[in-house]
Known about the structure:
Number of helices: 5
Oligomer: single chain
CATH architecture: 3-Layer(aba) Sandwich
Number of strands: 11
Helix content: 25-40%
Largest sheet: 6 strands, mixed
Radius of gyration: 15 Å
Strand content: 15-25%
Strand order of the largest sheet: 3-2-1-6-9-11
Number of domains: 1
Distance between the termini: 27 Å
CATH superfamily: NagB/RpiA/CoA transferase-like
Structural class: alpha/beta
Shape: globular
Amino acid sequence: MPDKNAFRPGQIARLKAAAAQTQAESAALLSKLMATPLWQQAQTIATTVSSPLEVATAPLMAAAQKAGKQILLARVMPKRQMAFLPDPGPAGRITSKFGLAEPPYDATLVNQNPDLMIVPGIGFSLKDHYRIGFGGGYYDRFLAQYAGPTVALVPSVMAFETPQWPVESFDIPIQTLIQL
């Protein structure tokens, strides 16, 4: 089994090749999420602004706002930490050093306890709910301290029966995987 750093380039190449399929699957995955009690009961939903390789989060954010829910976006912080802040909308977002669209930092607006956390990744193990991300450990560090519900939207290209990467002691499984 390759280590995580060896697994990522091949998986990212697969994601690029399947980007159109992932975008096509996004609406069905969002529909399944919206049918869950987790979504229906949540008033604050944490997510990220997706890249073209990931399940589209713009429709997710629009659906949340239409339902009167608050969207919190991840912001990368020093020491591989994250803060979640209200989405200021596309015009109010800034670009991080990683090229990610994030809200500007305001300590008075940080919310580290959203009602629902939508967790991104590049691969998910269907058997035990482990994930692999883009690297850096930001989500695993955050999830180690977060007690609320976690969900991942898993398009077919990101679904693996078992992990094809090593699972380490600090990896945090996702509670609910939504797949087609």
